[in-house]
Amino acid sequence: MPEQTSSPLPPHIHWEENGEQRSARWRSEAGMPPPKRVVIADDTTNADTAYRLACEGTALLWRGDFQNARQLLQALARRADHKGKSGKKVKAPKVPASPTEAFHLHRQAQSQRARTLAMLLIPFDDGYTIPLRRAPDVKLACNEAYGRYEAPFIASLRELLGLIGAHEWRRSGVEIPALGARIHPHYGVFSPVRGEYVQLVADAQLPAGANLAFDIGVGTGVLSAVLAKRGIARVVATDQDQRALSCARENLALLGLDGKVELQVTDLFPEGRAPLVVCNPPWVPARPSSPIEYAVYDPDSRMLRGFLAGLASHLTPGGEGWLIVSDLAEHLGLRPREQLLEWIAAAGLKVLDRTDVRPVHPRAADATDPLHAARAAEVTSLWRLGAA
């Protein structure tokens, strides 16, 4: 008989309470390991003590009022942002020597802030109930993000609030003018709040005879929906992430387009060729700090390079590949324009045309953003590529 292998046990968190050693399952969508040191905290715990413990890597398992826990988390966030009780900021850090250094320092600060704020923990009991006073009903939000309830567990309050926020985004949706409808992003799936890239796909001239298109990295399904609405008879959309595929499936059904779009679980391209192949890869070539950041960060430009390398062999004669990408990485010094052009040429491709648009999101005009200079100069482009 073949040897049977058991699946690894889920991670557990351990602590002492009322003189007893206890443990529970640990859950972190950000991929954080369970804290090694845990103390019990409640309504008597003050913010300065909580912040000191959190910075030292000691987690606080909350046993008090839920709304007080939210207020404590806000107090921790103020301290993490270098604001004390007086609201005065501490001495400003030195000015980064380059945009690249500014980016890495910003990411480092974000990571440290996230680790500190994740130290405030909440218990979850049967059916995703929270055994705390004034705790909200989070069953639906947790089911959407985690799936079916399995066993009691501990998770960070910050993660829970992220789940609740994602649930509200999913419920209300994002208005997409190019569709005249809303797209409903799921937890962990990149939301199409930056509508300028969607509009580029809605406005670009379709290749002659384009009755089939491939959408590489479907995400919420927004670009597949735009292509189908524009009259392309069949769209084959791919993704490796089950959350994205589920999200796209639901959105396409709500729009009445599920019969025109076929979803496939695969890395990059489906089988065959098409007169139009569209890809909107993550725009920043950096390492994600959590699994749900893969929609934003593309380590070593893996998806971008993979798309370019395989595009020519998946285009029909005279077909076009549409690459939608921001030049933010160029302004941050993470990937020069020359590198992108070299990859295009090495893949046996040529640039047929390029359409640019300035971003309109609030961060582009926020002078307090550490990356303001790069964001203010950013341009999003639709590159029309063909076989050389």
UniProtKB/TrEMBL annotation:
Residue ranges, annotated region (Disordered): 1-35, 79-99
Family matches, as SUPFAM superfamilies: S-adenosyl-L-methionine-dependent methyltransferases (SSF53335)
BP-aspect Gene Ontology terms: methylation
A molecular function (GO) term: methyltransferase activity
Listed name of the protein: Methyltransferase
Organism: Duganella lactea
Extent of Basic and acidic residues compositional bias: 13-28
Pfam families, alphabetized: MTS (PF05175)
Highest taxon listed in the record's lineage: Bacteria
Ranges of residues in domain Methyltransferase small: 185-325
Residue ranges with Basic residues bias: 80-92
UniProt entry keywords in alphabetical sequence: Methyltransferase, S-adenosyl-L-methionine, Transferase
